[in-house]
Amino acid sequence: MPSLAAIREQGHSARLRALLAGAAEVAASQPGGEVWLFGSLARGDWDACSDVDLLAIAPNQQLADALADALLGARLGDDVLALSQERWKQLRSGDDPYWQAIGRDALRLDQP
Prior knowledge:
Blueprint: H1 4-10, H2 14-28, E1 34-38, H3 40-43, E2 53-58, H4 61-73, E3 79-84, H5 85-92, H6 97-105, E4 107-108
């Protein structure tokens, strides 16, 4: 799995560069918001047809929904899942292989 620094360095597409630049800005507009990239872009096995999968994480579900709406409104993600911080912790540490993989591969975008 590539690091966030490696993805920034490669920056193969304008869309990916816009995603990296915009995630921190959108997250900063939402109290306690976090933006995580998951899926093929986070794993480093994307291709020209790959979509942008994001997690919008916030202290509660209402704030997470608002963050997801802001990410979609800014056209930063194709699929945006909104989760409270508590639910994100539960899912990524649970027994479901789908969420275990997301938790393992996800990259937080709103941090330097």
